[in-house]
Amino acid sequence: MYDTKQTIEQVTDFAKKATALGFYKQYRVSAELGSQIAGMMEKEFIDYLEENGVSVWK
Questions:
Q1: Predicted confidence (pLDDT) per residue in 23-49, tens digit
Q2: CA distance 18 to 58
C-alpha cells in the first residue's frame, strides 16, 4: 500500500520492484533482467521474489 509520507526515492524503489516482479511473473523475464529493472543484485531479487510467493525454482 502506498504511504503518503514516503520519499520520492522510496516510491521509486517500490515502483521498480513492483514492475520487475510483474514482468517476471507475466512475461517470464530472467532473474538477471528482473534484478536490473528492480535495481537490485540478482540474489537480492531472487530473495525478493521468494518473499512475494514466487518460486524461482519451478
A1: 999 999 999 999 999 999 999 999 999
A2: 21
Cβ pair 21, 29 in contact under 8 A: no
Q: Quote the pTM value.
A: 0.86
- Under 8 Å between Cβ of 39 and 33: no
Task: Return the DSSP state at 5.
Answer: T
Asked if residue 14 lies in contact with residue 37, where contact means CB atoms within 8 angstroms, the answer is no
φ/ψ of 23, rounded to 5, equals -65, -40
C-alpha cell of residue 41: 543484485
Give me the residue spans of the domains in the chain.
9-51
Cα distance between residue 20 and residue 15, in whole Å: 8
